Amino acid sequence: MIGMKPGPDSIGIVAVSRNCSGVAARACGLVSLEPMKVAEILKDRTSWFRDCRCLDILSVIPAGSAGKIELIYMQTYAPTTLAAARDFWTLRYTTTLEDGSLVICERSLTTATGGPTGPSASCFVRAEMLPSGYLIRPCEGGGSIIHIVDHVDLDVWSVPEVLRPLYESSKILAQKMTMAALRHIRQIAQETSGEVQHGGCRQPAVLRTFSQRLCRGFNDAVNGFVDDGWSLLAGDGVDDVTISINSNPSKFLGSQSNLSMFPTFGGGVLCAKASMLLQNVPPALLVRFLREHRSEWADYGVDTYSAACLRASPYAIPYTRPGGFPSSQVILPLAHTVEHEEFLEVVRLEGHAFSPEDLALARDMYLLQLCSGIDENAVGVCAQLVFAPIDESFADDAPLLPSGFCVIPLDPKTHMPAATRTLDLASTLEVGAGGVRPASEADTHGYSLRSVLTIAFQFTFESHTRDNVAAMARQYLRSVVGSVQRVAMAISPSRISSSMGQRSLPGSPEAMTLARWICRSYRVHTGGELFHVDSQAGDALLKQLWHHSDAIMCCSLKSNASPVFTFANQAGLDMLETTLVALQDIMLDKVLNEAGRKILCSEFSKIMQQGFANLSAGICASSMGRPVSYEQVIVWKVLNDDDSNNCLAFMFMNWSFM
């Protein structure tokens, strides 16, 4: 393939093209499935290619060597609301070689190749698949070696100029198609062999179906195809939010046998959506923050309305108010892919009522949530957070109405050296944590690039409430956009290093001073050394503190407010499952359980008088709600240079997730 970069000739390496026409990627992988099974999976593109809306085999012609030629029409989703979707008209040839290898070749039918171009479809732009396919070789002793080549021309000139990097990125193609195919096959192989452990009574295939339905429902909402029953609703004079409605939800949710959440006496589904450009914000970091800190952008009243649609008598249309109702979330893991690039989970939103009129909103709610692409070191990865309300029964055929966020990097086609880009992609193919580059090796210049964020929220409505729901949805989406913009500014790496980072990021003078205070106060109060270092210089102390194996964290000392965390070392951040940026949003009483809070209260006067106390073994919770066990906690007062109280330090010893 002209322009294809040379990569190391070994298993698990992905190469991406630099300057060939269109975008292209190739990969080679080893899986423990037979060639026929691998071919069957690869041909079922809708099961693993999340951007594939449909694939229709229009005609099949037998060929020699037990082969066949297939005429195929495929539609793919548009990743944003700013450009049209793509479709392909291709010919696929499958045959078996003498050594037992299977070959699947595919390319578009065009006037240049001498074939019919196929009828055009409204709402779609015709794209071209250049020679692509799979070579599947059997291995001695079982299994297969798979060679994959993907090469497409997405007609970049038909999209707005600002979005063209999205259609010129071979790295995005490699992530969405090439690597997705390999990962899916490896997932099936491990499920088949029984290596994948799954909780509860649900089989991996059922959980995989939930993930596919969430993605498909979100993509359907973003694209709003006319043949699915979607139509645009007149705006309010401002073009930032698009409102579309679907009065026939069974048309685009026909595969779901349970449609109980939709009104039977008139109404349908309403979608509010928008796309926006972001500058200097890593997609993975943004989506991780949105996942871990839902209260920063979500309105509890709107969540309640969405959840009420699952019941017979929905509540009145809420109107968003600043902050909504206070709530906390607990994330319950359901499943993850073999390489941990995608998580399926249930989110419990704990309701609270502070006045009689809020009692109806006080019940807990549940969301089925899919999160992917939150590895900051992966290249060309689209980060996504999609969720849908569910009820407590959570049946396999539960109706899903997904909403969420998708962030895609707009990476110019010519940037990094060829070898670096090949190895970056290769590293993400390795199974487990060993394939992730250290943070110190990450591309620190990548954050100067832009990304496009697409947001879509879906609601059910009844005929007489349509206009009110549309007004609420429009107002809510604008509120979410404003919140996301504030979050994006706060977590931008340049912003962190220049302002927020000065208080707590390792390496700053303030952090070195705090490290010195923590170590000196521990020695003064307990008579022992927190750790031994050859030098008492601030940077040496800070380095030892940061890499200490026990979780060390500091809390504010304020009599008129709940203690919040102000600093944590790396082990502390791991235990709390948070970042330095988000640490100050976490309160101590949310981490300690009731028994831990009682013990701390009983020992508090001793801590203030003697300077420290030892707390017995117990259980606490991370910011994500995961239970954490620990053998002992040492608490001591941290004094500043004037011997005044600065904060409380906690050291959780021998902690582990339960």
From TrEMBL:
Residue stretches making up the START domain: 24-197
Pfam families for the chain: MEKHLA (PF08670), START (PF01852)
Parts of the chain that traverse the membrane: none
GO molecular function, one term: DNA-binding transcription factor activity
SMART domains: START
Keywords: Differentiation, DNA-binding, Homeobox, Nucleus, Transcription, Transcription regulation
Keyword field contains Lyase: no
UniProt-listed GO biological process terms: cell differentiation
Protein name per Swiss-Prot or TrEMBL: START domain-containing protein
